[in-house]
Write a structure and sequence with these properties.
By secondary structure, the chain is α+β, with helices and mostly antiparallel strands. 43% of the residues lie in helices and 16% in strands. The chain folds into 5 domains: 231 residues, no CATH class; 50 residues, no CATH class; 133 residues, no CATH class; 55 residues; 206 residues, no CATH class. The structure holds zinc ion.
Length: 727
């Protein structure tokens, strides 16, 4: 590239999708395009229109013929059509990748830009198709199928697509079947890679880790199968379901309403949800093991924990050598403990083989008994016992030898850390963006079409939506740049903006809030004016509330501020009761994005007809070095929210929360194989059963997983912030 050239990394995305959510097997196969010069946050925000629909690829028809020859012919035809379509798509890019093109940048300067394909985001199956690889092949390295499930410390040769191209050329020129064979040996299909020959493109670098398909829809699906078999083997299924159904609410978390086994749909949303709670639920359902269960339970929990932790840290938006080191360690741990699930990795073939052997041994026994004729009952029993042992032994041996973890999705995790080192965080290339684009660009387009030759209409529909929205964004930017009256907009533009802002725009444009939202008390109960009424409403004796208030005053208030230690005075102060506290919680690794936690307390009454709700919250009570891993915070149940005005000298208003705090045990440390903090209920009779605290010390919702008998596990895997804070 010449000196002073500007590189424009082109990021493409492809993902087959269904056109409707409801019925039919109509599919679309869109290719989207965006560029790396746009900040990833802007790029991934749908309202910024940074993702273009470039093409709808032809979706190959289903294989109808059963004949191998016909199927293979159809496969060849599919591949050739795909190659031709991509040559056409890349043609225009190739022309300017060579000499560059002068382009206007957003800062008003004109630059010589060289757009070069730099990333291709797709799930694994599509990557295999596009790279022309056999099934179970990695696009980055030449790992053989039988090593896919092995530890991360193994290094396999990186793929050299340049070399493959040379071998292909040699074959085309001079023939020689050994050339084809040498490519097939490393999983490469001759002439099928759509990226071959593209100028300045480094094919092995196009691969991007894909958390959604690889981990959530891939590995977690496997993991859940193993967990289910494991629970069944150890008779813990019912306990698991019981814990599963009693999970508390949390922002962005969908509280399961059905038993785990009754859930039929496991898509991205459900799998992510599962990833946030599975460790705690699993650990809770394996509580109090028998001596024989101890060792497998510990290994199983460690294995699940390793995969969950890996999946969480892979979502960090910034990394250090430490976090990458942790990720490598988690993966290593997973491999170290995965053996505990090996018996559940059996294929149908293996199970059949085991059945055949089993039947053989049973027949052997029958024959032996027949030959022996009349034998004493004791001897007969001994023979039966021996045979039973032999049969289970054989079955386990077959399972052990033939079950393995050699599947591609496990291998791909190996490349996550090196990818972060080279290209930065993983979520920036998330396929989630594609899912959103599908909705806006493809499905809406299909809905608006007359369903006849829909592809063209989808493409046209979206180019119009895109053009209008881009113009709108440009106008908004111009309007914002200059002060009122002096804006660079002419009358026509201003009318256009006004008109648009009055009608509902097809694409919602949202402005991000830069200021920190405030903590708010919501849902005032109009019938409550005094402590007496509050006490009745909450079911807490008024005496106890007064004592707590005075304790709060002594603990937290400066002298002049102190609520007067006079119960008669307190009795006259006006009180308001609320049922909701809105707490803005800064998003993890964000500076201006807040999640709103809504902590509810409905007392004894029902919440939306679903029984009463008194949420778990975090209360910041001590310094960061207190309460061990919890860092100065304790979880508790929110039992009341109220506002009281000191009618005395200062007229000050106190916004307070009544919380039933839990206590930690075991030195407040992270305990056991699951690495979660255990918390306990305080004695009902204890003087500090209820605490009154300022609402500013309530820092957010807590997610606790019940462990029975007034015990809970603090679910620190519920979101990235908690995961990062509690360790
Ligand atoms: Zn690999």
């Amino acid at each position: 590239m010449p000196e002073g050239a500007t590189l424009v990394p082109v990021i493409c995305m492809s993902d087959q999708t269904h056109l409707t959510n409801f019925s039919g097997d109509k599919k679309a196969w869109p290719v989207y395009l965006t560029i790396g010069n746009v900040r990833s946050k802007t790029r991934n925000s749908p309202s910024k229109m940074a993702i273009l629909l470039v093409a709808l690829l032809p979706v190959p028809p289903k294989f109808t013929s059963k004949k191998a020859k016909k199927r293979s012919a159809q496969r060849t035809a599919n591949d050739e059509i795909l190659n031709a379509v991509f040559s056409f798509i890349f043609e225009s890019l190739e022309a300017i990748a060579k000499h560059g093109k002068e382009m206007c940048c957003s800062d008003g300067k004109v630059r010589q830009c060289f757009p070069v394909l730099a990333a291709w985001i797709a799930d694994h199956a599509e990557n295999e198709t596009l790279h022309g690889l056999k099934r179970m092949s990695c696009a980055v390295c030449e790992v053989p199928v039988e090593r896919l499930g092995w530890d991360t410390k193994e290094v396999h040769p990186a793929r050299d697509y340049q070399k493959y191209a040379e071998i292909e050329e040699r074959y085309v020129n001079t023939g020689g079947e050994h050339n084809v064979a040498s490519l097939l040996a490393v999983g490469v299909k001759m002439g099928r890679n759509i990226f071959t020959g593209l100028l300045r493109v480094e094919i092995p670098l196009l691969f991007k880790p894909d958390i959604l398909h690889n981990i959530y829809l891939g590995l977690f699906k496997h993991l859940m199968q193993w967990i289910e078999d494991f629970l069944k083997k150890h008779g813990r299924q019912e306990l698991f379901d019981e814990v599963w159904k009693s999970l508390p609410p949390y922002p962005g978390f969908f509280v399961p309403k059905k038993a785990y086994r009754e859930v039929t749909q496991w898509q991205g949303k459900e799998m992510r949800n599962l990833g946030r709670c599975i460790l705690g639920v699993f650990a809770s359902s394996l509580r109090s093991p028998t001596p024989a269960q101890q060792s497998p339970f510990v290994d199983a929990i460690r294995c699940v924990r390793a995969l969950v932790d890996f999946s969480l840290m892979a979502q960090y938006r910034s990394h250090t050598e430490d976090t990458l080191g942790y990720m490598e360690q988690y993966l290593h741990d997973f491999h170290r403990y995965k053996e505990v699930f090996q018996e559940f990795r059996t294929s149908k073939k293996t199970r059949q083989e085991a059945d055949v052997h089993d039947e053989q041994l049973r027949l052997n026994l029958e024959r032996k008994l027949k030959e022996a004729g009349k034998i004493p009952a004791a001897k007969r029993r001994r023979l039966l016992d021996e045979n039973r042992l032999e049969r289970t032994g054989k079955r386990e041996e077959i399972h052990r030898n033939q079950s393995h973890f050699n599947f591609i999705k496990l291998h791909l995790l190996v490349h996550y850390c090196s990818h972060v080192r080279k290209f930065g965080n993983i979520p920036m290339y998330s396929t989630d963006v594609g899912e959103l684009a599908h909705k806006v660009q493809i499905k809406e387009g299909y809905r608006h079409s007359n369903k006849n030759d829909a592809s063209r209409q989808i493409l046209h529909y979206y180019s119009r939506v895109h053009a209008v929205s881009m113009r709108l964004l440009t106008l908004r930017a111009l309007q914002a740049r200059k002060p009122e009256g002096a804006s660079g907009l002419d009358n026509a533009d201003r009318c256009f903006l006004d008109e648009i802002s009055q009608t509902r725009s097809a694409i919602q444009l949202t402005e991000t809030e830069a200021t920190r939202p405030r903590r708010l008390l919501r849902g005032r109960d109009k019938n409550i004016n005094s402590f007496k009424q509050l006490s009745e409403n909450l079911g807490i004796p008024v005496e106890q509330i007064f004592n707590e208030l005075m304790r709060y005053g002594r603990r937290s208030l400066q002298n002049p501020d102190r609520l007067i230690a006079n119960k008669e005075r307190l009795d006259t102060m006006p009180v308001e009761q609320f049922n909701q506290l809105q707490i803005p919680v800064l998003g993890f690794q964000e500076t201006d994005v807040y999640d709103i936690h809504r902590a509810r307390t409905t007392g004894e009454r029902s919440f939306r007809n679903g029984g009463s709700r008194n949420d778990w919250v975090w209360v910041a009570l001590g310094a960061a070095n207190e309460y061990g891993a919890l860092r100065g915070k304790l979880p508790g149940r929110l039992r009341g929210l109220f506002k009281v005005r000191d009618t005395g000298t200062n007229g000050k208003v106190y916004r307070l929360a009544i919380v039933q705090l839990l206590q930690t045990a075991g030195g407040n440390r992270i305990s056991g194989a699951h690495g979660l903090v255990k918390v306990f209920a305080r004695q009902q009779t204890s003087t500090d059963e209820f605490w009154i605290v300022d609402i500013t010390t309530v820092t957010g919702l807590a997610h606790l997983i019940p462990e029975g008998d007034g015990k809970w596990l603090v679910n620190s895997r519920i979101d990235l912030r908690t995961f990062n804070d509690v360790y």
